[in-house]
Specification:
Elements: E1 4-6, H1 16-26, E2 28-29, E3 39-45, H2 49-64, E4 67-69, E5 78-83, H3 88-107, E6 112-117, H4 118-123, H5 126-130, E7 136-138, H6 146-154, E8 159-161, E9 184-188, E10 190-191, H7 202-206, E11 210-211, H8 214-226, E12 231-235, E13 243-245, E14 252-254, H9 255-263, E15 270-274, H10 283-291, E16 298-300, H11 308-313, H12 320-334, E17 339-346, H13 353-366, E18 370-375, H14 383-387, H15 394-418, E19 423-431, E20 438-442, E21 448-452, E22 461-469, E23 473-478
Helix pairs in contact: 9-10, 10-12, 13-15
The structure holds S-adenosyl-L-homocysteine, iron/sulfur cluster and FE3-S4 cluster.
């Protein structure tokens, strides 16, 4: 994972072929299944890990309908874009991509093009009118209906299903692990979000929060262990508010208890989770993390802003002091080494220069290991769009964001330097991007570590002595 994901560095002036070849850098593309099925499906996924995980559910549903997946768009009979609406740019990227896909559709007129996910939910039928090449619009809770919708399209119609559900968790669907390296897998534990942060479109695109049956989660994790997986990441917009009760009410499971159940599946299975909302993360969760060595000591705890007035306008329901209290609890229960990352929004409505400075000073206080940083992008229909004026000029938003990014680079470097001179247990995920003579994996704190491969391979746990670092990466040597 890159340590600095920002809004400032995306330029898309590639040809359709180049964009397809490079798509796996910005997006995730399905891998080949090749089981001899009659039709081929290509999915490109944008946005968050929830979307990547949903694409695996979609592939599973389509597989039963006679579709193999392909990683080559030219070979596809059906192309799905699983889309994101979080910022305007995310939607623009998809619209540009649809323009490029038009080129493939001209070469192969029977090609079916579907828009899935959050943009489908936000724009609904309007998307069919705005983007003529789209045949199919399907929201995140309607994937079980895909076989019927594909039939409608095969019959010459356009098809839409954007119904949201209060119950759907796809608990019984066995995802086809298409985005995975065979070592690490995502497991959805809940869907939707009830928080209504004023800037955020997710409650509108993903619907109400619901937690998945704890038994089906543990079962899925057990199956992954049997298949040889070494790491799971439990996914939800707000995992700390996970709450599931059995129908007869005799069993209640909160997030700390779920974490424990998952950690107990296998002591060599690493357990990660994302995202933690600062208002919900409890000491019980932190003590559970401490109790189990295989729960990774890393917490993604988005602050969004360091100023209490802005946080209130954002409807985050915590203030700066509360956030600092949670960070102090993490440091005192789990120690200084525990990795912490954040999301930050620069230039939210009415943010003053002093309030922006508060964000920088909060960053100085926490010293995040890394962060995802954005400038505010107004989303139609959200509380902020309805009630607040998007009054910070774009240049100011960008300048403040650049300052936040610079500060984060300093902190990432400082935090990485602390890792030098120590041995880290690294789970190997792949070859390094630059050379097959080097392996790449992550340590407990989610930092990428690169080292000469020797006799080690993907899926191994390797003790690596770290002797150097950059802003985004640790470098070292395996010690036997
Ligand atoms: N559930 C997570 C966030 C999911 S969205 C949480 O509560 O922390 C991922 C990130 O996108 C958010 O944390 C926020 O930093 C950013 N984001 C969301 N809406 C945005 C908007 N309108 N403009 C800019 N950034 C936004
Ligand atoms: Fe959006 Fe807030 Fe829900 Fe996160 S918690 S998904 S930012 S509404
Ligand atoms: Fe984007 Fe939807 Fe995820 S809006 S960030 S894909 S929940």
């Amino acid at each position: 994972m890159d340590s600095l994901v920002t809004d400032l560095d995306f330029i898309d002036n590639r040809t359709p072929e180049q964009a397809t070849a490079a798509a796996s850098c910005d997006t995730k593309v399905t891998q080949e299944t090749n089981t001899g099925r009659s039709r081929k499906l290509y999915i490109e996924s944008y946005g968050c890990q929830m979307n990547f995980s949903d694409s695996e559910i979609v592939s599973s549903i389509m597989f039963k309908e006679g579709f193999d997946t392909t990683s080559q768009i030219e070979l596809a009979d059906v192309v799905f874009l699983n889309t994101c609406s979080i910022r305007e740019k995310a939607e623009q990227t998809v619209r540009n991509r649809l323009g490029q896909i038009n080129y493939f559709k001209k070469k192969k007129p029977g090609l079916v093009v579907g828009v899935l996910g959050c943009m489908a939910e936000r724009l609904k039928k309007a998307l069919l009118e705005e983007e003529k090449i789209v045949d199919l619009v399907v929201g995140p809770d309607a994937y079980r209906d895909l076989p019927n919708l594909i039939n409608e399209v095969d019959g010459g119609q356009k098809a839409v299903n954007v119904l949201l559900s209060r119950e759907e968790t796809y608990a019984d669907i066995n995802p086809i692990r298409l985005n995975s390296n065979g070592v690490s897998a995502f497991v959805s534990i809940m869907r939707g979000c009830d928080n209504m942060c004023s800037f955020c479109v997710v409650p509108f695109t993903r619907g109400r929060e619901r937690s998945r049956d704890a038994h089906s989660i543990v079962q899925e994790v057990q199956d992954l262990v049997t298949q040889g997986y070494k790491e799971v990441t439990l996914l939800g917009q707000n995992v700390d508010s996970y709450k599931w009760a059995s129908e007869d009410g005799t069993e209640m499971v909160n997030f700390a208890q779920l974490l424990e159940k998952v950690a107990l599946v296998h002591s060599e299975l690493r357990v990660r989770f994302s995202t933690s909302h600062p208002k919900d993360i409890t000491d019980e969760v932190l003590y559970t993390m401490k109790k189990y060595d295989n729960i990774c000591k890393y917490i993604h705890l988005p602050a969004q802003s360091g100023n209490s007035r802005v946080l209130e306008l954002m409807n985050r329901t915590y203030d700066r002091d509360w956030y600092i209290n949670r960070v102090n609890a993490i440091r005192s229960i789990l120690g200084e080494d525990c990795g912490i990352s954040s999301d930050m929004i620069s230039g939210f409505c009415t943010e003053t220069e002093e309030e922006h400075q508060d964000t920088l000073s909060l960053m100085d206080y926490v010293q995040y290991d890394y962060a995802y940083m954005f400038f505010y992008s107004e989303r139609p229909g959200t509380l902020a769009a309805r009630k607040l004026e998007d009054d910070i000029p774009l240049e100011t938003k960008k300048r403040r964001l650049a300052e936040v990014i610079d500060r984060q680079r300093e902190h990432s470097y400082i935090r990485n330097q602390i890792a030098i001179g120590k041995v880290h247990k690294v789970l190997v995920e792949n070859f390094s991007k630059k050379s097959d003579e080097y392996l790449s994996g992550r340590n407990d704190q989610n930092k990428v570590v690169i080292f000469p491969k020797k006799h080690y391979k993907k899926g191994d746990y390797v003790n690596v002595f770290v002797n150097d670092c950059s802003v985004g990466t640790l470098f070292g040597e395996a010690v036997d």
